[in-house]
Amino acid sequence: MKFNYPKSEKLKSQTTIGLLFSEGKSVAKYPLRIVYVEDPESDIKIRMGVSVSKKYFKKAVDRNHYKRLLREAYRLNKHILNENLEKKYAMMFFYQTKEKLNFHEIQEKTVILFKKLIETEADS
């Protein structure tokens, strides 16, 4: 299993991001949230973007720190999604709190959130 996050897996398309916010479904496990939409045109199984709100962290250095933590948590745990989801998805990963959690807490919440996402998609 490769634990990488190559450029091809990064969500950068403005049209896909717009589609996420207009038609996407959401799953949350405080303080993390994933908004996702099926992306059948993509040749990659999962394309992921990360976001930290300026509302909660005014300084760019703080936002960048939490974006790095989110990307790392995704990179280490993306195998959970790849092994259990059949369709192709575009996703946006959000950090939504003022609380400054450490990496270990973020990683635990990420695993719980990914499992919740898999259950949600299995039900539909």
TrEMBL record:
Pfam families per UniProt: Ribonuclease_P
InterPro entries: Ribosomal_Su5_D2-typ_SF, Ribsml_uS5_D2-typ_fold_subgr, RNase_P
Enzyme Commission code: 3.1.26.5
This protein's GO CC annotations: ribonuclease P complex
The family this protein is said to belong to: Belongs to the RnpA family.
Protein purpose: RNaseP catalyzes the removal of the 5'-leader sequence from pre-tRNA to produce the mature 5'-terminus. It can also cleave other RNA substrates such as 4.5S RNA. The protein component plays an auxiliary but essential role in vivo by binding to the 5'-leader sequence and broadening the substrate specificity of the ribozyme.
Stated name of the protein: Ribonuclease P protein component
Organism ancestry: Bacteria, Pseudomonadati, Bacteroidota, Flavobacteriia, Flavobacteriales
